[in-house]
């Protein structure tokens, strides 16, 4: 009996991490997207590795940031996955901490654009995506973002609402094509307003576009690359445009909650998520485009994702400060000119 007790005490002394890990809980706040796959590929393996419990909270960005703000004095979330702009908003509100990237063994593997997306050391990118135009290649030819407004095409176009993640980036590129490149996006919004009765719909959910394309109600729509896979399953010819103005897109990032009592564990989880193994598994399932430049994908996966260093460098992203400082103005102009 005494031998067994001493053996147990010795084991605990040799493994203090194992003894305390089972008592630790890490709470993360993430998008609701593909959570069954995330559980299988990310959450369960991490729990097995750390011996801890992972609590996952999901919701849209507005809801999740509001909860972080409401619990600012006593944080209930340790790590969050948000957009670049939302990360800057959280930073301005004092909700997140600077990330000690020296503790991330996989940090050096990231594309440069993902290492410090907002230039303030408060976030690390884990996935990015291109935004371009999906179009019926047998019905039209897209060489410029301005082609969407051509008389022969415009009545077969769907355009993202300004309130969606794809809205502002698509407007930004349309503005470049029209020679109206200002942060207020007034030029492209006005141009859309002039054609609002011709455009089929100002969509809010990209999931509705596949059916509209199948039914030939639309021939073209700006979309994020993460939505592309659904279009490839259609029995009509669909192409991904490479307009002369280029492609835009977005990046999602990981942030650490200020005042979290589990930041060391949160850093372990962040490093795990950024690893080549996990990023590869998520990419092969077409869940996230990898921010880790060491990821090597099958041809099928690469063709459906935003993949490769040259692609990452080429994306024309709206700076987060511009997005935050102009959001209210964009919506006001949109409501005045487009009215939806």
UniProtKB/TrEMBL annotation:
Pfam families: SBP_bac_8
Gene3D superfamilies hit by this protein: Periplasmic binding protein-like II (3.40.190.10)
InterPro entries: SBP
Species name: Rhizobium aethiopicum
GO cellular component: outer membrane-bounded periplasmic space
GO terms classed as biological process: thiamine transport
Record lineage: Bacteria, Pseudomonadati, Pseudomonadota, Alphaproteobacteria, Hyphomicrobiales
Span of the signal peptide: 1-21
Keywords of the record: Periplasm, Signal
GO molecular function list: thiamine binding; thiamine pyrophosphate binding
Record's protein name: Putative spermidine/putrescine transport system substrate-binding protein
SUPFAM superfamilies: Periplasmic binding protein-like II
């Amino acid at each position: 009996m005494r031998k067994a007790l001493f053996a147990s005490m010795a084991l605990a002394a040799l493994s203090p991490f194992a003894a305390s890990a089972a008592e630790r809980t890490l709470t993360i706040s993430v998008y609701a997207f593909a959570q069954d796959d995330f559980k299988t590929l990310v959450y369960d393996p991490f729990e097995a590795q750390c011996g801890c419990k992972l609590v996952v909270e999901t919701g849209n960005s507005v809801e999740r940031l509001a909860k972080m703000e409401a619990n600012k004095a006593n944080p209930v979330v340790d790590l969050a996955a948000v957009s670049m702009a939302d990360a800057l908003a959280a930073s301005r509100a004092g909700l997140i901490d600077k990330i000690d990237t020296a503790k991330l063994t996989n940090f050096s593997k990231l594309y440069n654009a993902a290492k410090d997306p907002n230039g303030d050391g408060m976030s690390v990118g884990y996935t990015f995506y291109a935004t371009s135009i999906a179009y019926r290649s047998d019905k039209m030819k897209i060489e410029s973002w301005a082609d969407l407004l051509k008389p022969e095409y415009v009545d077969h176009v769907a355009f993202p609402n300004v309130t969606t993640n794809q809205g502002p980036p698509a407007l930004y590129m349309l503005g470049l094509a029209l020679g109206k490149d200002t942060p207020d996006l007034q030029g492209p919004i006005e141009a859309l307003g002039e054609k609002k009765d011709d455009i089929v719909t100002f969509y809010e959910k990209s999931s509705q576009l596949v059916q509209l394309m199948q039914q030939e109600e639309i021939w073209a729509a700006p979309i994020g690359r993460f939505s592309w896979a659904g279009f490839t399953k259609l029995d009509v010819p669909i192409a991904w445009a490479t307009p002369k103005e280029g492609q835009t897109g977005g990046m999602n990032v990981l942030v650490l909650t200020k005042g979290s009592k589990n930041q060391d564990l949160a850093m372990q989880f962040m490093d795990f998520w950024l690893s080549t193994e996990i990023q590869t598994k998520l990419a092969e399932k077409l869940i996230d485009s990898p921010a880790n430049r060491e990821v090597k994908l099958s041809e099928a996966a690469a063709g459906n994702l935003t993949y490769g260093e040259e692609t990452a460098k080429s994306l024309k992203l709206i700076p987060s400060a511009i997005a935050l400082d102009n959001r209210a103005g964009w919506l006001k102009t949109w409501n005045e000119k487009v009215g939806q």
